[in-house]
Each structure stands twice: as C-alpha cells, then as structure tokens.
C-alpha cells in the first residue's frame, strides 16, 4: 500500500488541490486508485509528482508536461524526445536566469542609490536620477 493524497502532500509540499488539478488535467495517469477510488501514491508516483512540479515551476506548459508523462508511459522509444524536451527546458531556465540577473543588477543599483541618498539625507546629493 502506498500513500494517500495527504501523504503525498507531506512528501512533496504540493497542495492537495494542485495534485487533484494535475490529476484532472491528465498529468497523473500512472497513479493507481484503491478499491474506494482514493489515490494510492507509490514512491515512483511521488518522484514523478515532484518532477511535474519542477517542470511547472520552471515555466513549462501543462500540455507539454502531459506530453512528457505520456512519453514516459510509452517507454524507451521516446528517450530522444524526452532528452530534447529537457534540453529545451534547460535553455528556457538559463534564459530566465540571465534575465533575473539583469533585474538583480537593477535592484542592487537602486539599493546603492538609496543608501547613498539616505546617508546624505537627500537625493540631490546623489544625482538627478529619476525613480524609474
């Protein structure tokens, strides 16, 4: 016997509502149900649920995650497709990190600007930079 949905929540920190939503959207076809219709999560199911959450959190669309889940169920004939999917997602993540680094630089610049203005007691002492 595996874990109930509450056990899956404890293992993954994914809310039960999200797990149910993923199931409704066809992302969890591998999860078995017991005789009462309750989800029965195995260790493999938990690992897949964590992976699905990871992919979602990196911006992958649910339809692409569903495709990935189907590829997993289709077996070894889809290995190259799965590799390509993850290589693409890595590029997406790297691009987002680069953009976030630019945002971080802007925020750090503003922190330094306002520290200097606070120390001087006025923005006039720092520069005529607008608050953008």
UniProtKB/TrEMBL annotation:
SUPFAM superfamilies assigned to the protein according to its UniProt record, in alphabetical order: Putative DNA-binding domain
Record carries keyword Transcription: yes
Keywords for the protein's UniProt record, in alphabetical order: DNA-binding, Repressor, Transcription, Transcription regulation
Domain (HTH merR-type) ranges: 1-71
GO molecular function: DNA binding; DNA-binding transcription factor activity
The keyword rRNA-binding belongs to this UniProt entry's keyword annotation: no
Gene3D superfamilies noted in UniProt: 1.10.1660.10
Top-level taxon of origin: Bacteria
Name the record gives this protein: HTH merR-type domain-containing protein
Organism: Lactobacillus selangorensis
Lineage of source species: Bacteria, Bacillati, Bacillota, Bacilli, Lactobacillales
